[in-house]
Amino acid sequence: MYSLSTLKIMKYHHGNLKEELISSACTMCEATGHDHMSLRSIAKEANVSQTAPYRHFKTKESLLAEVSKRGFEELTDKMKLAISKENIKSAKDRFLEMGLAYLEFGLEKRKTYDLMHSPIIDKVEFPELLNAAQGAFDELVQVLTDLFPGISEDDLGKKCIKFWAMMHGLVGLLDMKIDPDIGSNAADAMSIVKKDFRSFLVDSLEL
Fold first, then answer.
1. 135: how many CB neighbours lie within 10 A of its CB?
2. What is the SS3 string spanning 21-59?
3. 1-58 maps to which CATH number?
4. How many CA within 13 A on the CB side of residue 14?
5. How far apart are CA 2 and CA 24, in angstroms?
6. 122 φ, ψ to 5°?
7. Contact, 191 vs 179, CB < 8 A?
8. Which of 45, 84, 130, 142 pairs as cysteine with 24 (C-beta 3.0–4.6 A)?
9. Between 91-108 and 153-175, two packed helices, what is the crossing angle to 10 degrees?
10. Separation of alpha carbons 188 and 144, rounded Å
11. Is 183 left (phi over 0), alpha (psi -120 to 50) or beta?
12. Which of 7-16, 129-138, 155-164 comes out lowest in average pLDDT?
């Protein structure tokens, strides 16, 4: 029968250690937020020795970069799935479905979403994370290119930033959970948007 210390050593040398650490970090990030994470706490969550994470990640930032990368990959997959449905034919429909998928991800994975857009990670230092983030943005570029055929590169760039900023801001506002019963203009406006996100996105195309 193995002692506890022997089991820890075995786990340390397990071939899936890196994936276990990333999985544990993803779980912790969504549960508590990245501010409350450390390599030691992640090691505890993964049930490995406190020195084990350093075998694959030199710093907390490098592990958070991997969590952020997974978030962008999941977001990209979610948007691609949303626009691949059989009944989604037009570029406008693809834009609407992609926008709804973005909102759903941002609200369901709020703490992961925060990390993905946090300045705590220098994306330039992590090429794989930068590529994952670019992949999500490229989906927006493609659907807007289809939606506005013949658009100039400059105007396309402006529209991409406009809609990205709009969706990013909307995720933040919705997360504030403004009470519709307080009777403020902001609460009333947010209540209207919440009732029909699709109409909100349709209206945004006409601005």
1. 17
2. HHHHHHHHHHHHCHHHCCHHHHHHHHCCCCCHHHHCCCC
3. 1.10.10
4. 19
5. 24
6. -85, 100
7. no
8. 45
9. 40
10. 30
11. left
12. 7-16
The string of pLDDT tens digits covering residues 60-91 is 999 999 999 999 999 999 999 999 987 888 99
Local confidence band at 2 (pLDDT 50, 70, 90 cut-offs): very low
Q: Report the candidate in 156, 134, 136, 137 with the shortest Cα–Cα distance to residue 145.
A: 156
Stretch 97-119: mean pLDDT, rounded?
95
Which 3 state secondary structure label does DSSP give 157? helix
SS3 sequence of 120-149? CCCHHHCHHHHHHHHHHHHHHHHHHHHHCC
The phi and psi torsions of 177 (rounded to 5 degrees) equal 55, 55
Query: What average pLDDT score do residues 160-176 get?
Result: 90
> Counting runs of H as helices and runs of E as strands, what totals does the chain give?
10, 0
> What pTM, to 2 d.p., does this model score?
0.84
Architecture of domain 61-205: Orthogonal Bundle (1.10)
